[in-house]
Design brief:
Blueprint (H helix, E strand, L loop, with lengths): L13 H11 L21 E5 L2 E4 L4 E4 L14 H13 L8 H13 L5 E5 L2 H16 L3 E5 L16 H5 L16 E4 L4 H11 L3 E6 L2 E2 L5 E2 L2 H14 L2 E6 L10 H9 L7 E4 L10 E5 L1 H4 L18 H14 L4 H23 L3 E6 L2 E6 L11 H5 L3 H13 L2 E2 L8 E2 L6 H19 L1
Parallel strand pairs: 3-15, 5-6, 5-7, 7-10, 10-11
Antiparallel strand pairs: 1-2, 2-3, 4-12, 8-9, 11-12, 13-14, 14-16
Helix pairs in contact: 2-10, 3-10, 6-7, 11-14, 13-14
The structure holds pyridoxal-5'-phosphate.
Pyridoxal-5'-phosphate (PLP) binds next to α4.
Length: about 450
């Protein structure tokens, strides 16, 4: 078992660290959403985490519903994972040569996701998504790609168009530094709009290499692609010879063992995407991501085919040890049933608390991923696309976020982000979270 460390003493304040950080790091952070710009206030500098909890530099404890933005599905410092990482580190940090663990991790992903026959391991979701697009273009000999408004697929140039989360937070529909020529082949359509994608295929179907989607979009909080929408995209891709790319960086091994594609296969018999992109959970908190497809499509990659991809740290031995140990735990029978039930308990607790306070609210979850919105009217359903998400109550969310943070509950610091529950969150953690929410919402309603 993990040694129980003493709670950290307050050594510096979050504010002092933030001021110091801003001198040496742009905005004081290494990924924009961490700066709390969307919600205001001072970011918490995290000193340590264990199980479902994180402690900041001031020694304040938080129940963590970010989980490093998804990877920490077992909670922090799981003993078996920690042990695997330490053992791997003793054997060597990086070799730049193939290792048995990479093969084991590839086999484990393939075993659980039937659409995949081969995978390539990389170091970030951005890299995996970027290469998946290159592979789709290389395999089809076409240039155009379709993505959807509010979906984020990493920060590769061609994909930085109307992406959600951090970009939504900063109000940039796209990024400076991306020449228009680079995104000229990226078509951005409305999420869940069947008619629009039908028209697009009718007009340009022969030029479309792939359609890329976040099946449950976690970068505009939590918005499911409807079953008819996914089914129709599958048909259109088949009809026009385009590839269907599921970006499961967030949903992969998070919403179900078979990932989001297995959730859609429940309603669309035989459903499979052509290419899948993974990250987050498969690395268990270490820099690791992957993309996979049929053997036929993957043969296009170097060294077999002409689509180039490489990485100094790809398949890193410590990261693969972390990912493998994580997958070993989450493939145990009953894991997702328990995680899904706990996540549902959180969402229904929050929903009840909002109802009791008379605050219009909707929430949803799948497996260990959840989202919620402060809507404009009671009875308003879950948002189906980015524009509807943007029209929900941002100021109310921001007040709720800070109220919860003050009560030791760490939610994502922007309403455009999904939340995550880990297997280490106990019933008592959920109850404490719901009690805090009830308190905050009572004040909000007053
Ligand atoms: N795709 C999705 C759906 C994501 O949520 C993210 C990151 O949040 C990425 C891709 C990019 O992954 P990374 O941050 O590891 O580059």
């Amino acid at each position: 078992t993990t040694p129980c460390l003493p709670e950290p003493r307050a050594v510096s304040t979050n504010q002092a660290l933030f001021e110091r950080a801003q001198l040496s790091i742009p905005g004081g952070v290494n990924s924009p959403v961490r700066a709390f710009r969307a919600v205001g206030g001072t970011p918490r500098f995290i000193a340590r985490a264990q199980g479902p909890y994180m402690w900041d530099a001031e020694g304040q404890r938080y129940i963590d519903y970010i989980g490093s933005w998804g990877p920490m599905i077992l909670g922090h410092g799981h003993p078996a994972v920690l042990d695997a990482v330490i053992r791997a580190a003793h054997e060597g940090f990086s070799f730049g040569a193939p290792t048995e663990r990479e093969v084991e991790l590839a086999e484990e992903i393939i075993r659980n996701v039937p659409s995949i026959e081969q995978v390539r391991l990389v170091s970030s979701g951005t890299e995996a998504g970027m290469t998946a697009i290159r592979l789709a273009r290389g395999a089809t000999g076409r240039s155009k790609i379709i993505k959807f408004e509010g979906c984020y697929h990493g920060h590769a140039d061609a994909l930085l168009v109307k992406a959600g989360s951090g970009l939504a937070t900063f109000g940039h529909p796209t990024s400076a530094g991306v020449p228009p020529e680079v995104v000229q082949h990226t078509l951005v359509l409305e999420f869940n709009n069947i008619e629009q994608i039908e028209e697009t295929f009718k007009a340009q179907g022969g030029d479309i290499a792939c359609v890329m989607i976040e099946p449950i979009a976690g970068n505009m909080n939590f918005v499911r692609a409807s079953v008819p929408f996914v089914k129709r995209i599958r048909e259109l891709c088949d009809q026009y010879g385009a590839l269907f790319v599921f970006d499961e960086v967030m949903t992969g091994f998070r919403v179900a063992l078979g990932s989001a594609q297995s959730v859609y296969a429940r309603d669309i018999p035989g459903f499979q995407p052509d290419i899948s992109v993974f990250g987050k959970v498969i690395g268990g908190g270490m820099p690791l991501a992957a993309f996979g497809s049929s053997r036929k499509i993957m043969q296009n990659l170097a060294p077999l085919g002409g689509v180039y991809q490489a990485g100094t740290l790809s398949g890193n031995p410590v990261a693969t040890a972390c990912g493998l140990a994580t997958l070993k735990e989450i493939t145990k029978p009953g894991f997702y049933e328990a995680l899904g039930a706990r996540t549902q308990a959180l969402v229904s607790g929050l929903t009840e608390a909002a109802k009791a306070a008379g605050v219009p609210f909707v929430g949803d979850s799948e497996g260990g991923m959840f989202g919620f919105f402060f809507t404009n009217h009671a009875g308003e359903g879950l948002p189906q696309n980015y524009n509807v998400v943007m029209a929900t109550q941002k100021e109310r969310f921001n007040r709720f976020f800070h109220g919860m943070l003050d009560r030791g509950v760490y939610l994502a610091p922007a309403l455009y982000e999904a939340g995550f529950v880990s297997a280490s969150h106990t019933e008592a953690d959920i109850a404490a979270t719901v009690a805090a929410a009830a308190d905050v919402l009572r004040i909000e309603a007053a």
